[in-house]
Amino acid sequence: MIGAIAGDIIGSVYEHSPIKTKDFPLFHPRCRFTDDTVLTVAIAHAILYNRPYEKSLRQIARRYPNAGYGGLFINWLFSEHPRPYNSWGNGAAMRVSPVGFAFDTEAKVLAEASNTAIVTHNHPEGIKGAQATAMAVFLARKGFDKKEIREQVEQRFGYDLNRSLEQIRPSYSFDVSCQGTVPEAIICFLDSTSYEDAVRNAVSLGGDSDTLACITGGIAEAFYGGIPKDISEKVKEMLAPDLLTITEAFCNKYTQRNNNSF
What we know:
The protein is mainly α. It contains 15 helices and no strands. Helices cover 60% and strands 0% of the residues.
């Protein structure tokens, strides 16, 4: 989970100023946490306290109305009677990493990933993007190698993961869809050599950088057994106190059984 948050922060400054290189300062002076972090923490909050995903999403996100949500989500967030709005956007995938860390069977991961999505993103592509991301985190956490992760995600979800970053990067542009974000984010992980390298891959595509790096970062954390201490310490400095408290509680309960990243 902390890997997803770090990816969001690192990628935040390039969301509207895309770059096509891996050579950039890891934490730009203007980096910040965005809606990707807020909603990831909200999902963790729901899991920690056994609350409905909708309630935690609305409770936590309303504290940060200027975090960078899309227009449809804003309407849902402040609606008196919220209803899912058939979205296929990548917001379903960027917030789901806690599911991959918290649950211990494929069936439960798939079910809970769907449950996190359908409160807003009930389009089949939105649900699929959330499930694929959570499953990649789960498989990485359980010790599957990259070949196995690639094959299982391709077979189950139909994504084309047999492309290289060199093939994707030149023509890739800003894309808010799950179908145009999740496969690329997984490839950024598959083509990486470390957590940091995975996040640099994601930012270097020049797309929706914070969300790409958020999705990639969660998977890379699970696979590489955590994130470097200097990165986690920087995240601690930048998170708001209430978000940090939830993040620490979640990591203490779930992710530290696999690594010591937080």
